[in-house]
Amino acid sequence: MIKFFRHIRKSLLLENKTSRYFKYAIGEIVLVVIGILIALQINNWNNHRIERLNENLILKELHKEFISNKKQFDTVVFYHKKAFGSTIYIKERLPLNLKQINLDSLAYHLFYMGWTYTFNPSKGVTNALMNSSTFNVISNDELRQLLISWDDVVTDYQEEEILARNNYHNQLKPFEKTHFYWSEDYKKWLNDARLDLSILESLAFDNYVLDRYNDLSSLVENPERELELISYTLDKIIELSQPKSHD
Predict the structure, then answer these.
(1) Which pLDDT belongs to residue 181?
(2) How far apart are CA 29 and CA 166, in angstroms?
(3) Residue 96 and residue 107: Cα distance in Å, rounded?
(4) InterPro entries per the record (predicted)?
């Protein structure tokens, strides 16, 4: 093709057709420029297609990770609420009267009141993404911002859980082991001849229940707490990371 154009130019010069030569040369330049632009456009389109394919693969893994995290979070919140429900059951009956309280029901709720769980989401895909240039492949600005803030959201929520867990294990659990038959079978908690059940009518027992109530309340009852924020963030990331098909 190049030899063909060269032959035309040479013929025009030999025939002394200068004006036609210049017109032809300009036309040839225009064709070359158009060819370059087309090649660049094809290259850009191909690069864009590759980026979208890579983005789709990343979104797929991210979506799976946050689906799993959502399931774990829902499970943790379920157990928080179950523990809180048992705490409310006991709190509403304070101060206890041993002649009126059902000890089997009380033992059941004492057992579940002590459930402690923490949300520990998987961060493998998220951390790998945040610590590499691949993060720039994600085209959705809202998703990018949610991923950037995710670690802080989790940390803020975990602080509440850790405070509640540590208070239970350091303060409340020793109280249980001192005054109850501490067992995985709740039916044994208040069923031992060595127990002095008068502790159930004491101020110390009331404070033990109220202390646990306050901790769990901060996790599940206050609408302005991190519970709502982390739930929203999980749901939104799952929504926005749903892989899309690309032509």
Answers:
(1) 95
(2) 77
(3) 13
(4) DUF6090 (IPR045749)
12 contacts: CB under 8 Å, gap ≥ 6: 18, 20, 21, 24
pLDDT at 80: 95
Residue ranges of the alpha helices (H) in 131-194? 141-167, 173-179
Q: Is residue 225 within 8 Å of 167, Cβ to Cβ?
A: no
The 10 Å Cβ neighbour count of residue 106 is 21
pLDDT at site 210:
97
State how far the Cα of 89 lies from the Cα of 212, in Å rounded to an integer.
12
- Look at residue 4 in the predicted model and tell me its pLDDT: 47
pLDDT at 78: 94
Give me the pLDDT at residue 148, please. Answer: 92
231 by DSSP, 3-state: which?
helix
Record the tokens describing residue 44, joined without a space: 């850009």
SS3 state of residue 142: helix
| End-to-end Cα spacing for the chain | 34
Which strand (E) or helix (H) includes residue 18?
helix 18-91
Under-70 pLDDT residues of the chain: 1-53, 222-224, 245-247
Place of tokens 């979070």: 73
Cβ neighbours around 90 below 10 Å, total: 23
Instruction: Measure Cα distances from 14 to 17, 18, 26, 28, 105 in Å.
Output: 8, 9, 18, 18, 112
> How confident is the model over 5-51, as pLDDT tens digits?
455 555 544 555 555 545 555 666 666 666 666 666 665 665 556 56
Q: Which residues contact 176 (CB under 8 A, 6 or more apart)?
A: 110, 114, 182
